[in-house]
Amino acid sequence: MVFWAFSFIWFKVANETFKPITIVFLRLLISIVVLGVYLFFSNNFRKIEKKDRKFFLILAVFEPFLYFLGESFGLTYVSATIGSVVISTIPVFVALGAWLLLKERLKRINYAGIILSFIGIIVFIINTDGSLTFNIRGLALLFLAVFSAVGYNLILTRLLGAYTPVFIVAVQNTIGVVLFLPIFLATDMTHLINTPFTFSDLIPVIELALFASCGAFILFAYSVKKMGISRVNVFTNSIPLLTALFAFFILGEKLTLQNIAGMIIVITGLFMSQLNGREKKSDDALILTGKTA
Q: How would you write the pLDDT of the chain (293 residues) with one tens digit per residue?
């Protein structure tokens, strides 16, 4: 959770030198090398069944492609703290998607939590005079990331069990690199070549790849294996709080009492939405919860 919370900070720092597509492309490229080495030495490579190829493609279109487009460009308009709060609603929308498409029922306290989390977001982003604290385009892009994560999780249910989580992420990130390559070449390649940078400028990108895209996922998957997804998933609700604290100390972002109140409401709502609201058969649908980033 600390690694994922830091990912919002690292992106904001990297974005001072590199454009969003460049950050995503390099991040994915480094991650597939690291995951490929891990899979090689753990002997976890396997052949993808023909019937599953389309699901892997759809999975990669949702995430990392659409997810990173929404998150990366969204973070250019909003603060790291606000970005983490919006992204933290992914488990809530996944629960709604499971209810609509998988007919998974939720309890009343879960629905109350969903409503409360939205109230918290409103409290967090609305100024006392009724104006928004950030560009509406940033909000729209971040919710593109949220809904992409929902689609990702629903498709993921078809692949879990047949393939290991690390293998799935390695494949989706590989496809993601292929999808981002033409966009990178068309929009960011010239900028990257003409932008003077040092190795220190690359450090936040490397941190995103190693700690957020690889390390955090492996630790999370290990925790799921040892503790179960229902217990582990609750910890993801700590990401906005951690990001806000890190952004306050590292980026100098301000935290008002209203921001803190909104954040507490969101986190409370997220916890309520997770309370015994899922049948065991659907637990695997939330193993990654959009957090492969």
A: 899 899 989 999 999 999 999 999 999 999 999 999 999 999 888 899 999 999 999 999 998 999 999 998 998 888 887 888 788 777 777 777 777 776 666 678 877 887 888 788 778 777 766 655 667 899 899 999 999 988 887 788 788 778 888 898 899 999 999 999 999 999 999 999 999 999 999 999 999 999 998 888 778 777 766 766 556 666 777 787 788 888 888 888 887 888 888 888 888 887 887 776 444 444 444 444 455 45
Entry pTM: 0.79
CB-facing half-sphere around the CA of 157: CA atoms within 13 A: 17
3-state DSSP of the chain = CHHHHHHHHHHHHHCCCCCHHHHHHHHHHHHHHHHHHHHHHHCCCCCCCHHHHHHHHHHHHHHHHHHHHHHHHHCCCCCHHHHHHHHCCHHHHHHHHHHHHCCCCCCHHHHHHHHHHHHHHHHHHECCCCCECCCHHHHHHHHHHHHHHHHHHHHHCCCECCECHHHHHHHHHHHHHHHHHHHHHHHHHHHHHHCCCCHHHHHHHHHHHHHHHHHHHHHHHHHHHHHCHHHHHHHHHHHHHHHHHHHHHHHCCCCCHHHHHHHHHHHHHHHHHHCCCCCHHHHHHHCCCCCCC
CB-based contact 244:6 (threshold 8 Å)? no
Nearest alpha-carbon partner for 180 in 291, 54, 29? 29
Tokens describing residue 200: 């220190």
Give just the sign of the alpha carbon dihedral 211, 213, 218, 223. positive
User: Residue 279 burial (CB < 10 Å; 0-12/13-18/19+)?
Assistant: exposed
Here the tokens at position 68 are 């990173």
